[in-house]
Amino acid sequence: MLEAAALAIFAALMIGPALYGLHMYLLMFLAGRRRRHVRAMQRAVRADYRPRVWPRVTTQIPIYNESAVAERVIRAVAGLDYPRDRHEIQVLDDSTDGTRALVDQVCDRLRGEGHEIVVLRREVRTDFKAGALAAGLRRATGDLIAIFDADFVPGPGFLKELVPLLESDARVACVQGRWGHLNQNESWMTEALSLGMDGHFGVEQPARAWNGFLLNFNGTGGIWRRAAIEDPAVGGWQGDTLTEDLDLSYRAQLAGWTIRYCQDVEAPAEVPADVAALKSQQRRWATGSMQSARKLLPLVWKSKLSLATRVEASIHLTQYLVNVFMVMMALFGRSLFWFIPVERYADWLAVSWIVILLAAAAPSVAYMFGRWSLQGQIPGPGRILQLIALGFGLSLNNTVACAVGLFSRGGEFVRTPKTGSTGTRAGQRRYAVPGGLLWLAEILLGLFCLAQWAWFLEADRYVGGTFLLLFAAGLLTIGWQSRPHGATESSDPLPAEGKLAAAGEVGK
Predict the structure, then answer these.
(1) SS3 88
(2) Where would you tag: which of 186, 330, 353, 461 has the fewest CB atoms within 10 A of its CB?
(3) Residue-number span of the structural domain to which 221 is assigned
(4) Same domain as 139, residue 17
């Protein structure tokens, strides 16, 4: 009985990661095969676009307690090279601290310089970011809607580079640019995260966008066609998941719209440099992805999309489940062989381990391909090991978030605190994420992995259990660095006299 159970768990640990790993190899192939053709075609579209009048654009900047970066993003958006009489700026400020006064000051100055800029505020953060974007859309005057989160610093040419890709086809709902990294070299963690993001924007996004698969808007650094958001078949911004961007983009494509991705247009952003902030961001993405999968997969499989597209969408929407297999590997991966007679299954186990190793190598190969595709560099083995350890360290955090997403609807949108870091100058921590006890569970699981590694060290001939050592390093580092310490609230709370006196939206 124990032998059968052990074999079943081992099979799950092999099949699950193998599916996602082999899928990553396929995405690399798809991203590479049309890379030159699509980029050349997009460059030609941008070069040939000569409008008599540029379309009117509303740029939305959703902000919530972002005193470290609010002025930077507002000024960057005001500095976009786009006709001022065709560009409206909306600052969607849900802040409850001194960010509000800062926003008012910078917007007053920019308004005096001739920019069309409005500050919209709500008394209650209904539906969080999705609600703020929807409220702003009702007041917007633009036919195109650009969106930048508070930590982004778009370059002057961003709008003029992407608008032609929307205008060249009336069925294009959105054009997504890629993210750059303002503080890539700030720490080992920002270096690893930047590499991981390059894998997403250098492999996953182009593979889907350039081969007819369903693509996700990344929530920022892109431009939407207003008509697509307001299409009754799409349903607009909705707050029943924590990934309103993924949700809207899938609903738009299921309604017949398309989304384009432009790899050549970059919007630099701040990478989380604080472990607690990173865990908060990952929890939101993992929870929201699972909520979106529950909501959207029935629609995907009822649609008339090709079987390949539906399968790929299913893998895409459930990709955070990889973390569940990682935690299972940490818990059972080595101890299973107490219950499996290795001699009896030697041939089968040998093949299984080859499959597992190939699947495990897929993300690393993808990260190298993505970095080469975007920056012309190939990261060294040290950087890859850092990212692997970081992924192992986040696995328990993301597994818990997946469980929450599978059994809950909506939830609080906990924004990722920013510091204003630029890489050459570390930002000041003004906010922190409220902690819990998960850090303790991560440390305990890390110690368990370390104990397993030491116990089986000789049996594994001193190299076979290396994955347990990486698990231990990642979990212990993430757990220890995210233990409760410091304040959890802003250092500059909103004075009582600055609070809104009336409910509803307030425009300035």
Answers:
(1) strand
(2) 461
(3) 35-281
(4) no
Closest CA to 158 of 62, 223, 90: 223
CA angle 147, 149, 150 (to 5 degrees): 135
Taking the alpha carbons of 307, 313, 318, 323 in that order, is the dihedral positive or negative? positive
Angle subtended at Cα 266 by Cα 375 and Cα 234, rounded to the nearest 5 degrees? 130
Name the packing angle between helices 322-332 and 2-33 (round to 10°).
Answer: 140
Q: What is the pLDDT of residues 66-88, one digit of tens each?
A: 999 999 999 999 999 999 999 99
Q: Would you please indicate which residues are annotated as catalytic (active-site) residues?
A: 94, 245
Bridge partners of residue 118, in order along the sequence: 90
Same domain, 7 and 53: no
Q: What tens digit of pLDDT does each residue of 490-508 get?
A: 444 444 333 433 333 344 4
Q: Which residues of 50-70 are buried (b: 16+ CB within 10 A; e: fewer)?
A: eeeebebbbbbbbbbbbbbbb
Check pLDDT > 60 for residue 129: yes
Phi then psi dihedrals of residue 367, to 5 deg: -65, -40
Instruction: For residues 356 and 443, state if they share a domain.
Output: yes
Say if 439 falls within a structural domain. Answer: yes
Residue 485: closest CA among 445, 434, 444, 443: 434
15 and 42 housed in the same domain = no
Percent above pLDDT 70 for the chain:
91
What's the CA dihedral at 62, 130, 279, 464 to 10 degrees? -130
The confidence score (pLDDT) of residue 432 equals 58
Give DSSP secondary structure letters for 135-204: HHHHH---SEEEE--TTB---TTHHHHHHHHHHT-TTEEEEEEEEEETTTTSSHHHHHHHHHHHHIIIII
Same domain, 375 and 266: no
Query: Does residue 308 sit within a domain?
Result: no
Nearest-Å Rg of the Cα atoms of the chain is 24
Cα–Cα distance list, 250 to 49, 223, 258, 287, 289 (Å) = 28, 16, 10, 17, 12
| Residue 128 belongs to domain with CATH number | 3.90.550.10
CA angle 454, 459, 465 (to 5 degrees): 55
Buried b (16+ CB within 10 A) or exposed e, 133-155: bbbbbeebebebbbbbbbbbbbb
Could you tell me the pLDDT band of residue 229, with boundaries at 50, 70 and 90? very high
